[in-house]
Amino acid sequence: MLIFTRKLGETIRIGDNIRIKIVDIKGKQVRVGIEAPLDVVVHREEIYLKILEENLQAAEVESVDLNEVTKLWRPEK
């Protein structure tokens, strides 16, 4: 892990197109601004872990026969 010390208003660059800026410091909290391309996904750690958990749960769901699903959408006459 690389550790930086930054002051209010200072930035960190990751590659050519990601910029992290220290926006505000209040007590023990630091507000961080992130500029990144739209194709780069940025999440807080707890949100990222929740997404991973939900994806794993969704992958465990039993597959349904496509013919049965079709019948639900277009009932036979």
User: Percent helix among the residues?
Assistant: 25-40%
Describe the biggest sheet? 3 strands, antiparallel
Euclidean distance between termini CA atoms: 64 Å
Portion in beta strands: 25-35%
Count of the separate structural domains: 1
Shape category:
elongated
Offer a concise description of the structure.
Helices cover 30% and strands 26% of the residues. The chain is built from 2 helices and 3 strands.
Write up what this structure looks like.
By secondary structure, this protein is of the alpha+beta class. It is built from two helices and three strands; from the N terminus they run βββαα. A three-stranded antiparallel β-sheet has the order 1-2-3, with no helix packed on it. Strand 2 and strand 3 form a beta hairpin. The longest helix is centred in the last third of the chain and has 15 residues, at 45-59. The N and C termini lie far apart (64 Å). The mean pLDDT is 89.
